[in-house]
Write a structure and sequence with these properties.
globular
Length: 151
């Protein structure tokens, strides 16, 4: 087992819809980009060891991982706002615009997987490959109906 710490990413900050958002990046920004989207109880740095292993296997890779709004160092929505899939979609699109790529590969975990799926559905010409880990798509029902559906 490798006990060394993973390489430290570079912090980036952008603003979208009045919120300060953070994302981190590893590797060479001129290379193909892999966008990693975290789950509901995670943040961008949850990907550290995964990113390190990927870069060990594929050193010519650029990896970007955002903190969704209300996670990590990204700002929280106003108290009158909720956290719906649409809010997170704005974050992903803002990060995508910030990195200036025509296309990305996307891996999403849990909530991040449903967000990756929604991003790919809204912008299919921007996503080359999509991987979902322990994920289901966004619900087409009201939030209060979801527990009954899952049951």
């Amino acid at each position: 087992m490798n006990d060394t710490l993973p390489p430290q990413p570079t912090d980036r900050y952008i603003e979208s819809r009045g919120l300060k958002l953070r994302y981190v990046e590893w590797g060479d920004p001129t290379r193909e980009t892999l966008l990693l989207v975290h789950g509901s109880r995670d943040q961008c740095r949850s990907w550290d060891f995964f990113a390190a292993e990927l870069l060990n296997l594929y050193p010519a890779l650029h990896i970007v991982a955002p903190d969704l709004c209300g996670h990590g160092e990204s700002a929280w929505n106003a108290p009158t706002q909720s956290y719906r899939h649409e809010d997170y979609l704005f974050v992903l699109y803002a990060v995508f615009q910030s990195i200036g790529k025509k296309t990305v590969d996307v891996i999403g975990h849990s909530l991040g997987g449903s967000m990756a799926l929604l991003f790919a559905g809204c912008f299919p010409d921007r996503v080359k490959h999509l991987v979902l880990v322990e994920s289901i798509g966004p619900y087409a029902k009201n939030d209060d109906e979801v527990p009954e559906i899952l049951a």
